[in-house]
Amino acid sequence: MSEPAALARTGQATSPASLSPSRAMPRVAIVGNPNVGKSVLFNRLTGAYVTVSNYPGTTVEVSRGRGMIDGLAVEVIDTPGIYSFQPISEEERVARQILLTERPDAVLHVVDAKNLERMLPLTFQLVEANLNVILVVNMVDESRRLGIGIDSKALAEDLGVPVILTVSTQKEGLPELRRQIHEACARIDRNGLGNSAHRS
Ligand SMILES: Nc1nc2c(ncn2[C@@H]2O[C@H](COP(=O)(O)OP(=O)(O)O)[C@@H](O)[C@H]2O)c(=O)[nH]1
Ligand SMILES: [Mg+2]
Predict the structure, then answer these.
(1) Which of these, 15, 38, 103, 143, has the minimum number of CB atoms within 10 Å of its CB?
(2) Does residue 142 lie in a domain region?
(3) pLDDT tens digits for 115-126?
(4) Residue-level pLDDT at 167
(5) Residue ranges of the chain whose pLDDT lies below 50
(6) What distance in Å separates the CA atoms of residue 42 and residue 40, rounded to the nearest whole number?
(7) Can you give the pLDDT at residue 186?
(8) Ligand 1 pocket, 142 CB below 6 A?
C-alpha cells in the first residue's frame, strides 16, 4: 500500500488528497476520551478525502480530512483518545504533540453527556494550555434517557468557552457546531503569526 503520511505531506494544494500541515487552511482538532464519539463527528465533518497514517515515530494512527464548514475549507484532525493532557500513554503524547505543535484554530473537546463531570477536568487543562476550545457535549440522547439535564448556557458561562449539545450519530447540534467552528476559524488572521493570542 502507498504511504498516506507521505501523500499528506506533499503540500500540493491542487491535489484533493494533500492535507498540507501549512497554515494555508484553518485546522480543527477533535480531542477527548476514547469512545465519546470523536470519530463519528470526524466523519460528519469531513468528506471523501481522508488520510489515515501513523504519527511520525509512533504506531498511533491519526486521521486527517478536509471539511467544508459553512463555505470555509478546513483541515480536521481526529486525535487519539486521551484521559489527560499530561501524557502517560503514547496516545496521549501524540494528542498533546498535535495540539501543541500544530496549534489548531479550534479544538473540539468531545465529552460524553452521561459522564460530563468526570470529563470536565480535561476541558480545564485544554483551556489552560491556551487552546481555542469548543466543548462538544455528545450523546445527549443517552443522557436525556437517563433524565440528566444539561444547562449548556450556564456551562458555557462557567467555562468561558462555547458549549454545544450534540447527538453526532443523528446530526443533532451539528449546524450550531459548524457555526461555532466557522466563527473560530474565520477570526484567525491568516496573514498574521498564527493563533496564539486568541484566548488572551
Ligand atoms: N447514542 C449515541 N451514540 C453515539 C453518539 N456518538 C457516537 N456514538 C456511538 O459511540 C461509539 C463510539 O464512537 P466513536 O466515534 O468511535 O468514539 P471515539 O472513540 O471517541 O472515536 C460508537 O458506537 C458510536 O456509534 C451519540 O451522540 N449518541
Ligand atoms: Mg475514534
Answers:
(1) 15
(2) yes
(3) 999 999 999 999
(4) 98
(5) 1-22, 191-200
(6) 5
(7) 84
(8) yes
CATH code for the domain in which residue 30 is found: 3.40.50.300
With respect to residue 198, please indicate whether it lies within any of the assigned structural domains: no
What does pTM read for this prediction?
0.86
Which of 30, 35, 78 for a ligand 1 pocket mutation test, highest count of atoms within 8 Å of Cβ? Answer: 35
Quote the pLDDT of residue 185. 92
Task: Burial-class residue 58 by CB neighbours within 10 Å (0-12, 13-18, 19+).
Answer: middle
Split into its structural domains, the chain has a count of 1
The 10 Å Cβ neighbour count of residue 127 is 18
12 assigned to some structural domain: no
How far apart, in Å, do the first and last CA atoms of the chain sit?
A: 45
From 168, 170, 177, mutation site for ligand 1 pocket: most ligand atoms within 8 A of C-beta: 168
Q: Check residue 23 and give its pLDDT.
A: 60
Which three three-digit cell numbers place residue 51? 488520510
Which residue CA neighbors atom 28 of ligand 1 most closely? 139
pLDDT at 190: 53
Ligand 1 atom closest to the Cα of residue 78 is 21
The three cell numbers of residue 189 are: 488572521
